[in-house]
Amino acid sequence: MAKNRYTVAQYDDMIARGILGENDRVELIRGEIVPKIPISDSHIDSADRLTALFVAGVSQIARVSLRNPIHLADSEPEPDVVLKRLADAASRYSKPDPPAVYLIIEIADSSLDNDRNVKGPLYAENGIVEYWIVNLVDDCLEVHRQPRPDGTFADVRTLRRGDTVDVIALPGVSFAVADIL
Predict the structure, then answer these.
(1) Under a CB-based contact definition with an 8 Å cutoff, are residues 108 and 135 in contact?
(2) What CATH number is associated with residue 133?
(3) Range of the domain at 147
(4) At 132, is the secondary structure helix, strand, or coil?
(5) How far is Cα 85 from Cα 27, in angstroms, rounded to an integer?
(6) What is the pTM of this model?
(7) Among candidate residues 50, 45, 49, 21, the one with its CA nearest the CA of residue 33
(8) 157 lies in some domain
(9) Strand 32-35 versus strand 63-66 pairing type
(10) What is the CA radius of gyration of the chain?
(11) Whose CA is closest to 128, among 143, 141, 112, 146?
């Protein structure tokens, strides 16, 4: 049985018309409306710590967006954390597209395979310059940079407690990996 495929415009129209609401835990991935993976207590704790860390560390130079959609060619994923350009009058009420995104972070426990093999390639294909996976399973931070059109990243690193990580689009902004994990 063939799956229904939707454009971003059709998906946005379903939201605007109330067909999909905020209680529908779904996102648009490659034209398919897919259920979002439920989040665990450790995922919630990690999201809370990242929020505090990033709001304190970058609020003067970037906006911290939590679990809100971003606009890609055929998708509107809702990453756990997005660092994006500060809003100007034209973009204040719009979903950011790749040029407005400095960093995407997904927090992964039960979603690890999906974050690596579905969302990672999607972000790379769309030119997201930096993508981190807070890997709660292996207690590490996976850093993906230099996106390629084929859905891979040229620079992939695994960082551990004791390491530091910088945000490449924000010179001078760095964090202790231990504070992220």
Answers:
(1) yes
(2) 3.90.1570.10
(3) 40-180
(4) strand
(5) 22
(6) 0.90
(7) 21
(8) yes
(9) unpaired
(10) 16
(11) 146
